[in-house]
Amino acid sequence: MLSLTNRDQTNIQLDMRRQRTINSAVSAVGIGIHTGKKVRITLNPAPANSGIVFIRSDLSDRPQVRATTSNVSNTMLATSLSEDGVTVSCVEHLMSALWSLGIDNLHIEVTSEEVPIMDGSAAPFVYLIKSSGIREQKAAKQFVRIKKPIELTSDDACVALLPYDGFKASYTFVCDHHVYNRYPKHASLDFSETSFVKEVSRARSFGLIRDLDQAQSVNKCLGSSLENAVGIGDFNILNADGLRYEDEFVKHKLLDAIGDLYLAGNTILGEFVGYKSGHCMNNELARTLLARPDTWERVSFDDEAREVVKPFLQPIAA
Ligand SMILES: [Zn+2]
Q: How many A from CA of 255 to the centre of ligand 1?
């Protein structure tokens, strides 16, 4: 499913003070989870301060869709972006991979309205980016540092961003089903101590098979299979190899939240807490953050890294 146009590059020695893009174009082919259609994705280097921009290369005039919180147009089952009537769906796993490797600027061509689902996790995108190699740019990397807590609730779900020197994320998954009940439902990770690539990026999408049957009856999730998701039957996990992590479900929810929050445009310095939340609330949280400039400040570490942030900056650069 994965075809690379560039060779692996090792020993990336970079820090997180400067913006990043990739070295050269790299492509992969996969299918869209909802349409089941084949799609090619090509990541291209982009200039400093240009951000993450999708390009629908299958449409005339190659329209652009910027990866921003304000462009989020749908959060049912996945996060979709739309700009001037043009849509790119299922962006969150790719966005979390870009966050984890500190990629600020990228032009992403897709030949369909969906980013390919690959194996249902962020790992194939991490691999793709590393295959091209990461290029540090001259411009200072911008961070959004949370200064005051922001909390949103909806029914019994809740999301929050809190001040923290670094980036920490916690999630509590609530679903009373006896397969889910066998596995951890809470995870709390501090990314100054934990590698996203190693501990989170491989966590796949998951769902109950009975929900999938229902979705496919209305032409949704047509590309979904045990190749790109963890399938849950009435009594068991249906994938022959089981789970990749004991807490794969809750880690996937963290992966989604990190990808959704990265649409705010910059790496957040703070703590994310999610309880029973999903794409919709993640997006609401990012929108609320951007609408309340009293709760955050944009910072960079161009000249000297602040001592407090150093532990965060180094490990995720690895
Ligand atoms: Zn997901």
A: 7
251 alpha carbon to ligand 1 midpoint, in Å? 10
Residue 117's nearest CA partner among 211, 281, 1 is 1
Residues 219-239 pLDDT 10s: 888 899 999 999 999 999 999
Range with the poorest average pLDDT among 173-177, 281-285, 302-306: 302-306
Q: How far is CA 26 from the centre of its chain?
A: 19
Residue among 158, 185, 316 at smallest CA distance from 246: 185
Q: Is 93 a catalytic residue?
A: no
Give the CA count within 13 Å in the CB-facing half-sphere of 137: 21
Domains annotated for the chain, with CATH where assigned, are 18-140 (3.30.230.20), 143-317 (3.30.1700.10)
> Which pLDDT tens digit goes with each residue over 163-201?
998 899 999 999 889 999 999 999 999 998 899 999 999
pTM for this prediction: 0.91
- Rounded-to-integer distance, Cα 116 and Cα 120, Å: 9
Say if CB 96 and CB 267 are below 8 A apart: no
